[in-house]
C-alpha cells in the first residue's frame, strides 16, 4: 500500500493474508497476496494470485495454501492460520485483460463470526465516484519492493470510470472494462495499492466493493488502481464454494 498507515485486524478482522511457505518461505509467513473473508469458511482473493505464473507452481499441487487471520504482523505469531481446502477460480476470469479477477477459497475451519464483511450489491452507494474508500494490504509501500511486514491501509477515492478508461484505453498499460472493474485512487497520485496487495479488500460504507487487481505502477498521477468490481461477480461468488 502506497501512502498508507498502520492498520489493525481488530478493527478490520475480515482482512486476511494468503500464504504458502512452501513457495515463498517463512519470512513474512509466506504471504504473497491479500484476501478477504465474506463468510465463515469463504474467502475471496484475486484469480491472478492463483495463476501458475504467480505461484511458480500449480495451485492444485500445493499442499500448504493457507490464510492467516487475526494477525497484523506477519512475522509475529498472533491469530490463526487456516488451510485452504478448495480454490474456485471465476470461470469468467480473463488472464490477458484481468477481467473477472476473483477466486473463492473454501477454508478447512470456520473463522470467528465477526470476521466477515458484507459484499456491496450493484447500485450500492459505495460504487459511486467520489466515495471515500479504504484499501488494505501487506504489499509494497514504495513501488520498489519494500513489502510491509505489518498490515497497512490507505484512503482512496472511487473515481469515475472515465479516469481509468482514459488511463487504460488498451495496449501496453491494459484495458479498463467498467462492467467488471472499479477505478480508485487520487487524481494527484500518492495513495494506491501495489504489488503484494492483490486480492485484498477495497471497502466503502462498511461493505466490500473491490479486490486489488492491477494498475500501471503504484501511486502515480494519472494511473489509478484497478479493482475487481464485486457486484459484477456476486452471483457466481454466492454459488461457488
Ligand atoms: C500488482 O502487481 C499490482 N497500483 C497491484 C495493484 C496495482 C499495481 C500492481 C495498483 O500486483
TrEMBL record:
Residues 1-241 form the Peptidase S1 domain. GO terms for biological process: proteolysis. Gene3D superfamilies: Trypsin-like serine proteases. GO terms for molecular function: peptidase activity. It comes from the Bacteria. InterPro entries: Peptidase_S1 (IPR050430), Peptidase_S1_PA (IPR009003), Peptidase_S1_PA_chymotrypsin (IPR043504), Peptidase_S1A (IPR001314), Trypsin_dom (IPR001254), TRYPSIN_HIS (IPR018114), TRYPSIN_SER (IPR033116). Keywords: Disulfide bond, Hydrolase, Protease, Serine protease, Signal. Belongs to the peptidase S1 family. This is Serine protease.
Amino acid at each position: 500500500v502506497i501512502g498508507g498507515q498502520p492498520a489493525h485486524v481488530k478493527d478490520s478482522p475480515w482482512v486476511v493474508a494468503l500464504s504458502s511457505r512452501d513457495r515463498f518461505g517463512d519470512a513474512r509467513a509466506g504471504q504473497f497476496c491479500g484476501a478477504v473473508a465474506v463468510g465463515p469458511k469463504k474467502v475471496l482473493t484475486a484469480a491472478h494470485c492463483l495463476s501458475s505464473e504467480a505461484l511458480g507452481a500449480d495451485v492444485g499441487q500445493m499442499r500448504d495454501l493457507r490464510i492467516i487471520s487475526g494477525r497484523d504482523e506477519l512475522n509475529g505469531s498472533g491469530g490463526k492460520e487456516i488451510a485452504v481446502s478448495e480454490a474456485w477460480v471465476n470461470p469468467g476470469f480473463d488472464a490477458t485483460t484481468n477481467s473477472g479477477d476473483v477466486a473463492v477459497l473454501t477454508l478447512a475451519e470456520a473463522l470467528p463470526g465477526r470476521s466477515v464483511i458484507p459484499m456491496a450489491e450493484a447500485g450500492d452507494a459505495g460504487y459511486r465516484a467520489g466515495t471515500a474508500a479504504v484499501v488494505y494490504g501487506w504489499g509494497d509501500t514504495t513501488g520498489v519492493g519494500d513489502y510491509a511486514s505489518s498490515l497497512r491501509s490507505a484512503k482512496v477515492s472511487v473515481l469515475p470510470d472515465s479516469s481509468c478508461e482514459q488511463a487504460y484505453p488498451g495496449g501496453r498499460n491494459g484495458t479498463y472494462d467498467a462492467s467488471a472493474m472499479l477505478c480508485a485512487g487520487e487524481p494527484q497520485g500518492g495513495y494506491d495499492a501495489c504489488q503484494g496487495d492483490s486480492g485484498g479488500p477495497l471497502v466503502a460504507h462498511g461493505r466490500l466493493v473491490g479486490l486489488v487487481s492491477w494498475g500501471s505502477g503504484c501511486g502515480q498521477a494519472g494511473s489509478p488502481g484497478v479493482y475487481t468490481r464485486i457486484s459484477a461477480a456476486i452471483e457466481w461468488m454466492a454459488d461457488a464454494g
